[in-house]
Amino acid sequence: MSSFADKEIPGVIALFDVDGTLTPARKEISEKMKNTLAALRKKIVIGFVGGSDLIKQKEQIGEDVLGMFDFCFSENGLTAYKLGQQLASQSFIGYMGEDRYNKLANFILGYLAKLDLPKKRGTFIEFRNGMINVSPIGRNCSHAERDEFEAYDKIHNVRPKMVEALKKEFPDYGLIFSIGGQISFDVMPAGWDKTYCLRHIKNEGFTKIHFFGDKTFEGGNDFEIYTHPDVTGHAVQAPEDTLRILNELFQV
Ligand code: M1P
To answer: Which amino acids does the record list as binding alpha-D-mannose 1-phosphate (predicted)?
Structure first.
């Protein structure tokens, strides 16, 4: 018997991006969104697919996040859970190897050392299971400082320029670079974008896969899954849009 035989509408799954879709960027989920997801979960299978790591999703959605969704896909599904049980996956360092990763990290740190910014804080490379996350200002900036950096970056294109430099320096590394948030970009092997999570559900027999995301434009980190031929994509601007579309589709 399927693990999801208790759902009111069989064969349907809804996958959600986190920042800007279930929650405001890097902020906490609302009670209304939590209640809506709980009601939706009775009807269909639900999962999130976030670029961030599980620690951040726990901060934003709740410590009990693994119990709130049927599927939890952190780091695009490179860290994956089904009904709270971890699924097998791959790792960034396993793909890269220590030598190549050393060269990449040294280049990034050298580039940032020469970069003049109004403010620099700490944690410029966050090493995760399925990717690295690179932040020119540093990940442990405050909320106000992250807003300031985002505005500065819109004018000075700090991140796009750095991504171009990395592509030029490492053309043969098979990496992709994705600017998904406010202060950083993600670096991962080609194909390890959000479509990676579909590998974990391909044998579950879903006949309809919905995806909700706010960065669905080309270059955004929801683009590949939003445009995937097996997926029905929904572009949203904010969590309020997600709630509205869920109400239209599923009366929750
Ligand atoms: O989920 C989108 C992005 O969220 C964070 O981005 P930032 O800190 O730049 O706002 C990061 O966790 C990033 O990895 C992720 O893609």
So the answer is: 26, 128, 139, 146, 184, 186
Evaluate whether the domain defined by 12-90+196-250 bears CATH number 3.40.50.300. no
The yes/no answer on whether domain 92-189 falls in CATH 3.40.50.1820 is: no
pLDDT at 76 over 70: yes
What is the model's pTM? 0.88
Q: Residue 23 has which token pair?
A: 């929650």
Expressed in percent and rounded to 5, the helix, strand and coil fractions of the chain are 40, 20, 40
Whether ligand 1 lies within 6 angstroms of the CB of 89 is answered as: no
Residue 183: CB within 6 Å of ligand 1? yes
| Closest atom, ligand 1, to C-alpha of 50 | 1
Is-same-fold flag (12-90+196-250; 92-189)?
Answer: no
**Which atom of ligand 1 is nearest to 179's Cα?**
16
226 annotated as belonging to a binding site for a ligand: yes
Task: Express each pLDDT in 92-130 by its tens digit.
Answer: 999 999 999 999 999 999 999 999 999 999 999 999 999
- 149-185 pLDDT tens trace: 999 999 999 999 999 999 999 999 999 998 888 999 9
- Residues 38, 3, 55, 224: is their CA dihedral positive or negative? negative
Q: How far apart are CA 201 and CA 223, in angstroms?
A: 19
Pocket test for ligand 1, best of 22, 52, 194 (most atoms within 8 A of CB): 52
Which atom of ligand 1 is least distant from the CA of 128? 14
Residue with the two structure tokens 């996350």: 133
State if residue 43 touches ligand 1 by the CB under 6 angstroms criterion: no
